[in-house]
């Protein structure tokens, strides 16, 4: 995959007569877009950031013993449970909702998702000859 920056250039030319002199005026405007690898990296980091943020909120809510009957808390537990579930069983206990719990499996999930995101973001630069 070749990494080229797309540049769009527009030139507007105006000719005017000022006294005995012809004046040519040019206005140049340039628009450029980010390289594909940068867009891919930003997308990966955005997705990983959302997952890590939701897991961090889950960790804090569990640590503080948030009430599962609350709509927001229930949503966070349900949504983040999908991402935390692969890490249950690493340690000998399951989360207990409604009681203050230091859930280490969520901390492990945060670290693993961040490392996997970093690896995927770095993978997008393998074919690039620039430093990103």
What does this protein look like?
- The structure is a single chain.
- With 132 residues, the chain is an alpha+beta fold.
- It has a domain of 88 residues.
- It is 48% helix and 18% strand.
- The protein contains three helices and two strands.
- Strands 1-2 form a two-stranded antiparallel ribbon.
- β1 and β2 form a beta hairpin.
- The mean pLDDT is 82.
Helix/strand structural class: alpha+beta
Low-confidence stretches: none
Could you estimate the helical fraction of the residues in percent? 40-55%
User: In DSSP terms, counting alpha (H) and pi (I) runs of 4 or more, how many helices?
Assistant: 3
Mean pLDDT: 82
* N- to C-terminal distance: 15 Å
What percent of residues are in strands?
15-25%
Q: Find the count of extended strands (DSSP E, 2+ residues).
A: 2
Rg over CA atoms: 26 Å
Q: What's the overall geometry?
A: elongated
Q: Could you give the order of the helices and strands?
A: EEHHH
The largest sheet, given as strand count, sense and whether it forms a barrel, is: 2 strands, antiparallel
Descriptive tags:
single chain; two-stranded antiparallel sheet; alpha+beta; 132 residues; elongated; 2 strands
